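Task 17 of the worksheet. Students: predict the tertiary structure of the chain below and write it out as structure tokens. Keep your answer in the requested format; marks are given for formatting as well as content.
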Amino acid sequence: QVQLVESGGGLVQPGGSLRLSCAASRNIFTINIMGWYRQAPGKERELVATITHGGRINYADSVKGRFTISRDIAKNTVYLQMNRMKPEDTAVYYCNADSTFENYWGKGTLVTVSS
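Model answer:
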């Protein structure tokens, strides 16, 4: 099993930046894919960014060029740097760990982009 704890959410103005962190309870190098997803009010959960065991990165089109996913294997932590944020980025952001026969979610952290 793996527990995931997100942090770093909050209120930010349009055009601003936030960095989310996801701390895992075990070595993230043993997990096939770590990812960030988000769910806005009244909408389905959607992929934001993922990073594979081998370091391959994928982004949703809506965040390409603005968001950056990264990891610190020594700290068992995955990050999401969010820049040039927009009101439509407002959502609860969830960390996900996906491996063969295993899939885990954190409880989420709320991000609000508003002036």
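Marker's comment: Residues 13 and 114 are 5 Å apart (CA to CA). The radius of gyration is 13 Å.
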